[in-house]
UniProtKB/TrEMBL annotation:
This is DUF465 domain-containing protein. Gene3D superfamilies: 6.10.280.50. It holds the Pfam family DUF465. It comes from the Bacteria.
Length: 72
C-alpha cells in the first residue's frame, strides 16, 4: 500500500501513534477479510462488505495523513 510513501510510512509508524493505530487496524481488517473470503473464518457477504468499507475509509485517512506529512 502506497509504495511511494514507504519511507514516510516507516517513520510515521514510530513517530505518530494515531497513524500507527490506523495502519495496524487497516492491516488487521485486510487479514480478517482475507480469512472470510477464503472460508477460514465463517461470514456472509454483508459482513465482508462492511469490513471492506471500513478498510477503504482507513486507507483514505492514511493517505490524507501521508499527503499532509509529505508536504510538511
Amino acid at each position: 500500500m502506497f509504495p511511494e510513501f514507504r519511507d514516510l510510512i516507516s517513520r510515521l509508524k514510530t513517530e505518530d501513534a494515531h497513524f500507527s493505530r490506523l495502519f495496524d487496524r487497516h492491516n488487521e481488517l485486510d487479514h480478517q477479510i482475507s480469512n472470510m473470503e477464503t472460508g477460514v473464518t465463517p461470514s456472509d457477504n454483508s459482513a465482508i462488505e462492511a469490513l471492506k468499507k471500513e478498510k477503504l475509509q482507513l486507507k483514505d485517512e492514511l493517505y490524507a495523513v501521508l499527503k499532509k506529512a509529505s508536504a510538511a
